[in-house]
Amino acid sequence: QVQLVESGGGLVQAGGSLRLSCAATTNFFSLYVMGWYRQAPGKQRELVATITSGNMSNYVDSVKGRFTISRDNAKKTVYLQMNSLKPEDTAVYYCNARLSISYWGQGTQVTVTS
Question: What confidence tier does 28 reach under pLDDT thresholds 50, 70, 90?
Fold first, then answer.
């Protein structure tokens, strides 16, 4: 069982920045594909970004050039740096760890005001 604990969400004005963190409990963190997803009210959960064990990253088109995913294997933590935030980025952001099984964090709220 892998536990994921997100932090760093909050309220920010449009154009601002936030950095999300997700700390994992597994000793095999470096093997996991880590990802950030988000779910806005009334919408389905969507993939925001992923990063592989080899540090290959992938982003949904709507955040390319604004968000950066990174990982620190020594700290067993994945980050999501979010710049130039827009009101449409408002959502609950979830951390995901995937190997043979997928694990989810509890989510952290990000609210962007115009």
Answer: very high
